[in-house]
Amino acid sequence: MKYNKEFDLIKNSFINMKNNTPLLYSKTIIYVLNEYEEIFSSTPVSDYGLLNYKNLDPNCYPIEQASISEERVKLLVNRLVSIKFKDIDTFAMFLRSDIEHLFYFELKDYICPNCGSEGGGEVLLTRYEGYSPLSFFLSFFLSYALLAVIQDF
Asked: pLDDT higher for 20 or 114?
């Protein structure tokens, strides 16, 4: 892999963030995925599937409600920028983990209304047939709540 200089530019994108809010961090992640797509499409980085997230719009997600504080974002950024180019796969692994913490929502004590299976899990909200991710998320849970009320009668 021949992208040592570009890797430094990626890290500078995180260093130059004006603050450590989860929203700005998520926007910076999406920016670097799009700006340096060639790097993220090359092995070993491509093994982490980061380009699957490049079209996410952080403004359409309730990122500020993520369970990541500004102090935690600062630690995550410091961890990313300390990684050397020879360990770029580790960088990709951490970046993917951070994306999952910012964009995925954990469902706890959930029973599927379709199949009845119990448990939880994580959900990545995506645009669905013209609906914004948040409206789809809300309509899903409102229909789930309505189903629960109907079952109580």
From this structure: 20
